[in-house]
Amino acid sequence: MRRGISLVAIVGVMALIAAACSNDSSSSVTDGSSATALSYDPSAQGEGELNLVAWPLYAEKDVTGPFEDATGCKVNVKEANTSDEMVNLMSQGQGTQYDGVSASGDASLRLIASGLIAPVNVDSFDDYGNVMTSLQAPAHNTVNGVHYGVPYEWGPNILMYNSDVVSPPPKSWDVTFEPQINGQANPYAGKITGYNSPIFIADAAMYLMAHQPDLGITDPYELTSDQLDAAVNLLKQQNGLVSKYWNVWSDEVDAFESGDMVAGTAWPANQNVLFYDDKVNVGSVTPSEGVTGWADTWMMSSNAPHPNCMLAWMNYTLSDKVQAATAYTFGATPSVTTACEGLKKNLIAGYGQDVGSNAYPLYHCGDDSYLKSIYLWKTPVPDCGNGSSDCADYNTWTQKWVEVTG
């Protein structure tokens, strides 16, 4: 679902962010409490090689080169474009082909439940103390207090709009979901967009949490059959307003610049590209109902062929320079607070003082209160978190998404 941006005029123009999940889903999440957590040992001898599955631009040469020089671990990167592809790759040879993966929150629980991921001792990593509070033990990579990786980058799914067309600026997602606004036909019907993935059902559920509280939704990823049906019905209603769903950043950028889209879900990176192109005026907002979002984790295979190199890589990716560099080229926000100044400098150096300074606030770097307000992607499973198992799993979500998109 992701594709790198052509680096035109400047090095490291913002690129893609998160991707869709697969059709596969586990029914429960492994406890992991009896597993032995692996620790990073700086004196351990590396195996000379490291095989990674990563999103495009997550392990570029400017990041992997210094690591190779320092550790002697030659990094081989297999880029994957969907979470489904990542899970399939990590499953090959029962997890013996690749050492680690940069899993998004909508896939990480599936990987843990499959037994493919090794627990790690986060206290053994040099810079884990700099990780934002909300990402030190998040639900998408920590099960019953057991950690299954280290955080890398994160971001929100904002409401972006054409500021020359959409007036007044929207304050609610109703502009994207409702055929009528304030008793009048939605003036932007036919030019709305949404993210093309079953995980987008959570956005509809989040909207219903605010507008139909009688449904009893408390977590947009933990939906009973009735709650899921309500979200799907809302999405079917929205479908009549949609110009096109997008899952590649360039599709949304191109459609905003052509006028085919004027409002909808977006990543901050998409907005930054539009700022840089300067062909259309856009704004963004965190609506009153809130936003969903994503956070990615470097996870280690439970059968990693090069475990020392992988643990060294996980330690390395927590450094402020690495996270700031990837945040800039990838269009994401670092998970370590110490990377914020570096990100700001990178933006100004690449985009110029004005654009770079204007783009930086979109990242909410180091703002844990904002991060805490985001409903971060996680794999839907039957366990509703309250002892019951009557929630719909991701297989069901995928089937329902097909109903929405036809």
Classify the beta-strand content into a percent band.
Answer: 5-15%
Question: Mean pLDDT score, rounded?
Answer: 89
Report Rg: 21 Å
Assembly classification: single chain
Count of discrete alpha- or pi-helical segments spanning 4 or more residues = 14
Contiguous low-pLDDT stretches (5 residues minimum) are 1-28
Q: Assign a percent range to the helix content.
A: 25-40%
Coarse structural class: alpha/beta
Q: What is the straight-line distance between the termini?
A: 19 Å
Give an overview of the whole structure.
This protein is of the alpha/beta class and 406 residues long. The chain has helices at residues 61-71, 83-91, 105-113, 174-177, 201-211, 225-239, 249-258, 268-277, 307-316, 320-330, 340-351, 353-359, 368-373, 394-405, and strands spanning 49-54, 74-79, 100-104, 142-143, 146-147, 150-156, 158-162, 180-181, 184-185, 192-193, 263-266, 282-285, 292-300, 333-334, 375-376. Strands 1, 2, 3, 6, 13, 14 and 15 form a seven-stranded mixed β-sheet that branches. It is built from 14 helices and 15 strands. Helix 11 runs antiparallel to helix 12 (353-359).
TL;DR?
The protein is of the alpha/beta class and 406 residues long. It has helices at residues 61-71, 83-91, 105-113, 174-177, 201-211, 225-239, 249-258, 268-277, 307-316, 320-330, 340-351, 353-359, 368-373, 394-405; strands at 49-54, 74-79, 100-104, 142-143, 146-147, 150-156, 158-162, 180-181, 184-185, 192-193, 263-266, 282-285, 292-300, 333-334, 375-376.
